[in-house]
Amino acid sequence: MANKLCRMVKKGLLKEDIDEYKKYVKKPKFLCKSCGRIASKSDDLCKSEKI
After folding, report:
1. Residuewise pLDDT in 10s, the chain (51 residues)
2. How many structural domains compose the chain?
């Protein structure tokens, strides 16, 4: 669970490394039902749902 985008953003990934964040959200296919973030892989989100 430590590598989930939801937690990484809370810990500052967006502020620290915007290019790394872009890799996760490029061509989004999934939405986190908990926080609303998007990602290209379901494994990168806590509670993913296909969009």
Report:
1. 457 887 787 778 778 888 888 888 899 999 999 888 899 999 889 899 999
2. 1
**Cα(18)–Cα(11) distance, rounded to whole angstroms?**
13
Assess contact for 26 and 39: CB atoms under 8 A.
no
- Residue 36's domain spans which residues? 5-43
Q: What angle do CA 50, 3, 25 make, to 5 degrees?
A: 45
Strand-strand pairing, 38-39 and 30-32: antiparallel
Residue 48 lies in a domain: no
Tell whether 26 is covered by a domain.
yes
